Structures are given as structure tokens and as C-alpha cells.
Give the backbone structure.
Amino acid sequence: MKGETIAQLRKGDEQAFERMVNGNEVSLRIENRTFAPYNYLWPFHQTVLRVEPDLKQNPGY
């Protein structure tokens, strides 16, 4: 649009677009996600757990 500049910002899990409209900065948030703590880790395959008996499965799996 005429007279607008658009900047894409990324802060953590949040993605937002900011633009100048008539001299004012306007923000548009695309999404705001939240995750359970176990979503940050992947499960170990059962074979790996059998081969490495001291290895424990990640919490939540």
C-alpha cells in the first residue's frame, strides 16, 4: 500500500508484522503458541533404551 513499510519480527515463538500507517506503527500478531514442557524433547526409541540401560525416557513419553 502506498506510504506503508512492513517489517517482519520474530520474538521467541511469536511472529508479528509491523507497518507504518499514516505515521503510526501498527502491529499484527500472527500466532502465539504455548507448549507443554515435554513438547520440547523427543522420545527415545525403545531400541536405544534397551541398548543403553542407564538412559531414561524423556518425561511425558
